[in-house]
Amino acid sequence: MIKLSEKKDCCGCEACVQRCPKECIEMRLDEEGFSYPRINERLCIDCGLCEKVCPVINRSEKRQPVKVYASENKNETVRKESSSGGIFTLLAEQVIEEGGVVFGARFNENWEVVHSYCESKEGLAQFRGSKYVQSRIGRAFLEAESFIKAGRKVLFSGTPCQIAGLRLFLKKEYENLLTVDFVCHGVPSPGVFQKYLREIIARKGGRKNSVFTHPNPAQMRDISRIHFRDKSLGWKKFSFSLTLSTPAGVEQNTVFLSEPLNKNIYLKGFLSNLYLRPSCHACPVRDLKSGSDITLGDYWGITRVHPAYRNDDKGVSLVLVNTEKGFLSYERISEETTSLESDFRKAVAINPSIAKDVDMPCKRKDFFTMYKDRSFSLIDSVSLLTRESKIVRWSKFIRRVNNRMKFEICRRIKK
Ligand SMILES: Cc1cc2nc3c(=O)[nH]c(=O)nc-3n(C[C@H](O)[C@H](O)[C@H](O)COP(=O)(O)OP(=O)(O)OC[C@H]3O[C@@H](n4cnc5c(N)ncnc54)[C@H](O)[C@@H]3O)c2cc1C
Ligand code: SF4
Ligand code: SF4
Ligand code: SF4
Question: Which atom number of ligand 4 is nearest to the Cα of residue 290?
Fold first, then answer.
């Protein structure tokens, strides 16, 4: 039976819950807003199956991809809606065309992130775009298993630890399963995200501001769309945006909030690693250990690796093809992409999350002390903990002035 001595020893993949023959494991929320398994020892028969499917206990070897690409979906609309180059949608559409089923992460009616499946191309829209919140797997591994055993082709997408959990859960390789994960920085707490949503709605709800035209105080149920990677200001300067459903008498949905990554409190806290799951600071599956067929990511710094690349700031995917099966799938969609073969060593250098955990900052503890104390607002706590010190602000200012001077000198020399 699984015994967790430290929180970092569980990535929350829920493989153990779904494999237990006595159904005596349930996921319980902790005080940081993450879920962990709790075993009912009275029902447990000590069969050890839960340990056999756990990706933290059963780790795989480090891998190198067979091929690496910088790639963009030629469909501009899909690329705009996707986080990087929109390659996930192409892979998924291919599986749907073959009569298959696609699993991914979507929002439910309470704006929680959950795993589910779809069988149509239209259904893929709900999975598009990164949701910077840990998704709940629920019964997705069991559902995927039944489709696979019925002979349907299945594409399962998720975090690398979810893919590792699924593969252990299934026990063997299946020809009709394609697994797609992504380069994973880490997943933020679902509890923190819910608190953030409630606070912004409550704070801005009744007030008019430049983007808000809703006549009544807004409520959670009025939200119609949340986008963590809105590309209105470009791929590199992505925004968090939240749209409300159409109120009576107003023709268009209203954009309630739209803030770039350096201004939005939730994204700032995420990128400062204040509320990642403890296991993400000791990730069991970095270095492509998940066993996935394809790993997707953002090809940040593409022009540093390929100076001639035409970067239109609409998103470029890094595609790591890890297996022969992944290679055949990627080949089938390649005509619908603009792509270029790239180099793994260089890709790792500009995307450290492939191989390296982020350190747990000391401010994480301060954040959760404030989070647990109900008298602190989440927005105020994050802005306090992500505020730059005067020294940092000054050094950034001096660097900016220096760069501008260098640019001016170069311009004059050229002239
Ligand atoms: C929490 C998180 C952290 C990430 N960290 C990095 C990083 O450090 N470096 C990097 O290069 N890329 C990172 N990515 C991946 C990147 O943002 C894109 O998702 C990836 O490049 C695929 O983009 P796309 O344009 O092909 O498709 P998109 O349409 O953007 O891809 C969506 C896919 O992601 C899945 N997905 C979305 N949210 C979640 C979630 N919460 N849990 C599980 N699956 C989810 C969907 O099911 C779907 O398969 C991260 C993604 C997430 C969700
Ligand atoms: S040992 Fe077996 S019965 Fe007990 S919790 Fe684990 S899977 Fe369930
Ligand atoms: S990592 Fe997954 S399988 Fe292991 S204990 Fe946590 S939820 Fe269970
Ligand atoms: S960083 Fe590792 S442990 Fe955390 S969600 Fe990603 S794959 Fe899982």
Answer: 7
